[in-house]
Amino acid sequence: MESHLGDRIEGRCSVLESRVHEAEQKAKESFVSLEMARFEAEAERNSLEKQIDDIKLEVHYINRFFE
User: Fold this and answer.
1) What domain of life (predicted)?
2) Rounded (5°) CA angle 25-28-30
3) Residue 20 half-sphere exposure toward CB, CA atoms < 13 A
4) Cα–Cα distance, 8 to 13 (Å, whole number)
5) Residue 47 — pLDDT band, cuts 50, 70, 90?
């Protein structure tokens, strides 16, 4: 009986280890996805800031033209 109980506990531990490993993998994948999204957002922000600077410069030229 003791051997059967030990096998049963060992089996449960294996199942739990597998579930923990799967959860770790999902967390890593989520972190990588989050980092990629952050880099994409940062690149988009830089692009938008450049466009805003270009618009400000054009407005400055228009204002000087009408002075």
Assistant:
1) Eukaryota
2) 110
3) 6
4) 9
5) very high
Return the amino acid letter for 23: A
User: In 3-state terms, what secondary structure has residue 67?
Assistant: coil
Task: Copy the structure tokens of residue 10.
Answer: 């060992």
**CA gap 24, 21 in Å, rounded:** 5
Specify the length of the chain in residues: 67
Flag whether the pTM goes above 0.90.
Answer: no
- What is the H or E stretch that residue 19 is in? helix 2-66
Q: Which residue has the tokens 């996805």?
A: 33
User: What's the pLDDT at 2?
Assistant: 63
Residue type, 49: E
